[in-house]
Each structure stands twice: as C-alpha cells, then as structure tokens.
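JOB MANIFEST
job_type = single_chain_structure
chain_count = 1
residues = 124
[input]
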Amino acid sequence: MANPSSATPGMGRLAPGIGIVSALVAGTCCLLPLVLIGLGLAGAGLMMTMMAYTWLTLPLGTVGLAGALVLYTRARRCGNHAECGLLEGRLGQAILGLASMMVISALLLRLFPSWTSRLLQLLL
C-alpha cells in the first residue's frame, strides 16, 4: 500500500483542472446547449445534435471527475501541502464543488428527460 505522504508533487493543483474539464465534457450534452439556448445564441437543433454524443460525454465527465476527486483527496492526505502542490485556500474545493454540481446536473437532465423538457419550456 502506498504511503500518502509519497504523493506526487503538483497532484493537488491538477485535480481542480481535471474537474473543470470533466464538467465541461459532461455538460456538453445538456447544460451547454441549455445555456446557449437561454442566451439566445443557439436553437434546439444544437441540443439535439449534442445529445447524440451523450453516450461518450457523460461517462468521460463522470470518470474524469471521480479521478479529480481521488487526486484531490490524496493531496489533502499529504502532510506537507506545499510539497504536494495542494491548491491553497478554498479555491480547489470550490472548483471541484462546482464541477461536481455540473456533472450531477448533466446526469440528472439525461436520466430524467421530463425535467429537460420542462426547463426548455420555461426558457422558450
């Protein structure tokens, strides 16, 4: 079993970045089109096109976020935060929290399509 204090340097800084990329990947199926439609920058055709790739984007986003959370947890267990590259303050936690909310929202919108249709009715 690996010693948590032997964590690779920079792992704590990498986790929030991976979390944001994962959230963006997962959000391309549902959240990004909804935001663009709400802003009047796109139409429903974009959402239909992006939903065709849900089979790829949601699993990638979910696995990426899980990996980011594991990296962040390992970096927090490291005794010397500066040595492990843990993002100082609550910034890393806030970024991972936002990414988690985005991935969970994308999963809920995909698993419960009636919510998506009601949301589109409110936007349009």
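[summary]
The chain has one domain: 10-117.
Helices lie at 11-27, 31-38, 44-51, 54-77, 81-84, 91-111, 113-123.
exit_status = 0
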